[in-house]
Amino acid sequence: MRNDLISRFASRVADCFRPSWFVLFLTCGCYANHALALDLGPDFDHDETNFPLDYKHALADCESCHVQGIFIGTPRRCVDCHSNSGRIKASAPSSRHIRVVGDCDYCHTSDSWTTVVRVDHSVVIGSCINCHNGVAAEGKNPGHIPSGNFCDDCHTTYSWKFYHVNVVNNCVFCHNGSIATGKNPGHIQSTSTCEDCHRTSSWAPVLRVDHGSVLGTCFSCHNNVIARGKGPLHVPSSNDCSVCHSVTGWVPAF
Ligand code: HEC
Ligand code: HEC
Ligand code: HEC
Ligand code: HEC
Ligand code: HEC
Ligand code: HEC
Ligand code: HEC
Ligand code: HEC
Ligand code: HEC
Fold this sequence. Notes:
Blueprint: H1 2-17, H2 22-39, H3 62-65, H4 78-81, H5 128-131, H6 218-221
Helix pairs in contact: 1-2
One heme C binds at residues 56-57, 60, 64-65, 74-76, 78, 80-82, 88, 90-91, 104-105, 108-110, 112-113.
């Protein structure tokens, strides 16, 4: 079909090119287009052109896109028609539209401007809070944990599920037993600098106990109940372990 059209178009151009005046050629382009339109028979199928007409495009008048009878070279990028500056005047975004860099079809189809299935964040501009302020896009709801406005410290653009994306310290700000899981009652006596001993992936096992953040005497933990204590063959000694041991290893003793 397309080849058909092109050859018809080519023959029109050849027709008017005969006087071989270049100026006339330009006029002819236009004439060829008109003629082409007249030539389109009942079995013309727009879906066989470079631009299938779907949804609302199938309902639009031919002339709204083919202005001045121009067919070949009609723009195909959405933004070339859907802006206030192009030759073709189709619906354009309002001044309140979110700021984007990509073409419209990253987020829209020709079905409707208001049904946006997924906002492709690879083409948005600005920081999260610019849009996620409850006006341009969903913001924090009133029950949200107290937090700053750098949403991406804790969220990705895929879902509002919480991830420890950029969280490296101050765990206790949340892990205090009310905003999020805190220390259980049987927890070893420690400071609240959770990050000294824990990672964000899971609470247990603890790979390294940072003794800078333990509280109490050595024996309060190293009694074979909470943590490793003296073995059965240990030299007779008091329970003041720190006299003979450091926290870096039981062996060697001082
Ligand atoms: C929503 C916009 C739009 C509407 C409405 C539209 N077209 Fe098109 N049409 C295009 C675009 C875009 C192309 C591709 C142009 C290109 O590739 O150079 C095209 C291509 C064509 C071509 C082929 C030109 C070629 O490349 O060979 C013809 C013929 C054509 N349209 C006729 C029509 C007719 C007839 C109607 C009305 C029934 C119509 N069009 C409605 C946008 C539209
Ligand atoms: C060749 C010009 C042209 C191109 C390219 C084009 N459109 Fe359109 N589009 C129109 C025209 C004309 C209409 C009907 C009149 C209007 O809505 O302004 C329309 C209608 C629409 C509508 C319906 C608007 C409404 O209010 O019902 C949507 C949505 C739309 N286009 C999206 C797109 C998307 C997405 C693209 C890119 C994939 C695109 N258009 C490419 C010309 C174009
Ligand atoms: C990153 C995603 C994204 C891109 C890219 C995008 N839009 Fe939108 N657009 C949206 C969202 C989200 C809405 C709001 C939908 C709603 O009302 O629920 C919207 C709404 C609209 C509306 C109706 C409200 C208004 O502000 O006018 C129009 C018209 C529109 N877009 C046109 C466009 C056009 C034209 C382009 C390309 C130049 C484009 N959009 C690119 C996401 C996008
Ligand atoms: C230019 C505006 C804009 C920016 C910037 C932006 N978003 Fe969005 N985002 C939207 C819109 C619009 C939606 C869809 C409508 C809504 O949720 O209100 C959305 C949806 C989301 C969703 C829901 C996704 C889903 O599928 O449920 C998440 C999560 C999200 N954004 C996170 C972020 C994060 C994190 C940032 C910063 C890194 C960010 N967004 C930056 C406009 C933006
Ligand atoms: C310090 C971490 C943190 C920051 C920063 C943060 N959030 Fe959240 N957000 C959370 C946690 C935790 C949840 C609960 C989700 C869960 O349990 O998986 C949540 C849930 C949400 C939810 C879904 C549940 C609800 O409350 O509606 C939305 C929407 C949300 N956040 C938006 C935002 C936005 C917008 C920003 C930036 C302005 C932001 N958040 C900043 C931690 C954070
Ligand atoms: C902004 C709040 C916040 C901060 C800060 C925070 N977390 Fe979380 N964390 C949560 C939430 C919400 C959950 C999920 C609900 C829960 O477990 O209570 C969670 C879950 C966890 C889990 C369980 C993970 C799993 O999948 O079982 C661990 C482990 C964890 N956090 C460790 C940490 C550590 C370590 C830090 C400090 C480096 C930290 N968190 C900082 C809010 C936070
Ligand atoms: C001095 C190191 C240290 C500090 C600091 C510390 N923990 Fe722990 N935590 C541990 C050890 C050791 C365990 C036992 C882990 C095991 O069974 O492997 C533990 C266990 C836990 C568990 C239970 C894990 C399970 O599933 O049995 C939670 C929850 C927990 N800690 C939360 C916290 C929170 C919240 C903080 C900060 C407020 C914190 N911890 C500070 C060392 C520490
Ligand atoms: C609040 C509890 C607690 C206190 C107090 C404590 N520790 Fe620990 N310590 C632990 C835990 C838990 C471990 C890791 C599990 C285990 O070894 O049973 C550990 C591990 C050790 C290790 C093995 C380190 C390694 O890398 O192999 C040594 C050595 C040690 N502690 C010495 C001491 C000494 C010496 C003191 C007193 C100065 C002390 N600890 C105080 C809880 C404590
Ligand atoms: C008077 C000094 C002294 C005191 C006090 C002492 N230890 Fe030891 N401990 C030793 C010596 C010596 C060794 C053997 C080290 C070597 O082979 O280099 C030893 C070895 C150990 C070992 C490794 C071998 C084994 O028996 O399993 C552990 C564990 C240990 N001590 C725990 C403790 C704990 C827990 C305390 C406090 C409740 C403690 N020690 C108090 C002198 C002492």
